[in-house]
Every structure is written in C-alpha cells, then in structure tokens.
Fold VIT domain-containing protein.
Amino acid sequence: QRSGDVVRLQLGRLPAGAEAAVKLELAMELQNEGDGNLRLAIPAVINPRYPLAPSVQQASSAAKEQEAVAEGAQGPGAAPFGLRVHLTMASPVLGMSSPTHRYDFSCSPLFDDPTQAKAAMQLPSMPDREMVLSIKVAKPLESRCWLEPSGEGDHAALLAVLYPDVSVRELLDAQAGPSPKGEPDPAKEFLFVLDRSGSMSGE
C-alpha cells in the first residue's frame, strides 16, 4: 500500500502464454444519496491532488505518495478486467443499476435472501472511467454494526452506525412549542463515552 488510497502490486516474471489473476478485496462505506439509494463508486483513474509546498515535497512519505498518484494517473491498461460485487444489506435490496456502465453490469438479487444481491462486470480492457453502482434498499437509515476479527483472533475492529430516532425529536419539538420565526433550530449534540479501563476487561 503506497498511500491511504493507492495500492501498487507487482507480478513476477510470467512465461509466454501464462496467465495471472489479480484479486483485490475492498471494504468501504457507501454514500447515501437519499430516497433509499446508496452509491458504490470505484475509481479507475486517479486525478492529481493539489500541489504540495516545496518543503513538504522533500519528505519521504509525501514523495512516495506523489509517485503512487502519478502511476495511478497514467490511465487504463490493456489487460482484461472483471468486477464482482456481493451485497449484504440490513434491509431488502429493491434494485441495482449502473449509471456509468449501464450495459456492462449484470445485476441479480438472491431470491433466498432479499437482503443480498450480486453484480458482475467483464470488460475486454481496463475501464477508462469511474465505475458506479446505484443500490436501492428498503430502509437505508437503519442502525447497524460490523465486527471484523483479526487473523489471530485476539482482537477485532468494530464499526457502528447510529441514526437518531426522528420521532423523539418531533416529540421534543412539540413539547417545546414552535420556535420564533427566523430562528434556526438549536444544534443537537450527541456524546459517546467509550470505557477502556481495566474494569471493562474480561467477559
């Protein structure tokens, strides 16, 4: 991994007529576009970032990142490209489509489990633009949690997504009465406390 969002792979020498398959697995947060639509975007060409100051460019980490971005901005190659997406959502998947590769993506739900679906794309060469998949789900704003254990099994990473209950806010607003005209609603703040003390260890 060359930087936070640039990965470089090198293949060894291949004899004539040999084939090699490169498989990448990505985990990312989907963008919520509203109306139950989620957006999965996978870039194919990296646009150059804003230029760094000369003093920062001398740093080894910044130089490696600039080199990696320059490699990614060279454009697509001539090797065949395949993409498979397996979706597991918290609510039923209502539909999928691709605004960028409408006729290249094949999408199909899993009838035995409405919360899962599959999409696949096969191109004769590397794509020359961003690949976007639009996913429509029944309930996009449901609180959920993911647990990713480590390879050794001694620790894990936890990602929690929480959405406030709108009905509670409506009840509080009704009890407080209408706000004066022209004044915005007061800002709401949520505080989360994570206890990592010794008393929380163990089962």
Residues 91 and 139 are 6 Å apart (CA to CA). The longest strand covers residues 81-88.
